[in-house]
Amino acid sequence: MTEKISRKNPASVPAPVGKYTHITKIPRNAELFVTSGQVGVDQQGQFPSNMNDQVRNTFLNMKAVLESEGLSAENIIKVNIWATEQIDWDFLYAEWDRLFEKEYPAMTIGYLAELGLPEIKIEIEIWAAKV
Questions:
Q1: For the segment 12-70, what is each residue's pLDDT rounded down to a tens digit?
Q2: Phi and psi angles of residue 76, each rounded to the nearest 5 degrees, phi first
Q3: Which residues, other chains included, contact 103 with Cβ-Cβ below 8 Å and sequence gap of 6+?
Q4: Backbone Cα Rg of the chain
Q5: Across the strands, what pairs with 130?
């Protein structure tokens, strides 16, 4: 029997307050992938001034990085999100649902005063595993 990545929300813990899973289990001997934070830069190297445009670009960049290693959303085990301004959760979750459908990874979100460059409004780091 082939082991696979599993996700669950234990009954002993309050339900998630967002679209994430409390715990993700990676089978022994899985190959681990960790990305640098993906940002909202477009293919021309430009950062849109609008947060939602940066969110859209960030998700496109995340997908491209995953695909470069033959990975998809089902391989993602952990996501760290950092933002410098309020996230439009309806917009971000629409992108999130397009990527993950219903199997959500573990997630951490933090707001910071600034990221690596002044024009960066959001950065998302991915941890993934291939069984």
A1: 999 999 989 999 999 989 999 999 999 999 999 999 999 999 999 999 999 999 999 99
A2: -75, 125
A3: 7, 21, 73, 74
A4: 15
A5: 31
